[in-house]
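Expect sequence, tokenised fold; for instance:
***
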Amino acid sequence: MILINLAIGLLTMMICLTVQVMFTLWSVRYVVRHADEPGLGRALLTGTRRLLMAMVIMMLGNFLQIMLWGALFLWLGEFTDFHEAAYHSGVNFTSLGYGDVVMSNDRKLLGPLEALNGILMLGLSSAALLGIVQHLTKGHPVNAAAQ
């Protein structure tokens, strides 16, 4: 059963990576495509708006992955209610780990695999957001007095 769970988990993780890469590239392209547009307000507010849009796009990707894991748990018969499966998935994905909802012994390995997946995907989102911040601040000194 361990090998079956490992195979199911790794396949799901590969699907999640594909989803996250698509959403991350979508958000980075959004920022780069709109980087030369004149802002409605000051440069800081315009950059913040673009950064927020990128964050929302990537969080939608993470949310979709949480729903994917929840659907998997439902399909495997671990839960009878999608709401509970999605809740359990969100707790796993974010590594929150309440422990108030637990899967059967046969499928417990999928919980840590999802947590590992979540850490990696949230790390990818964080790295992309940092890259976007660097792109937005390129050529704009943070502190003019430091020059």
About this structure: Helices lie at 2-33, 43-75, 82-93, 110-137. The longest helix spans residues 43-75.
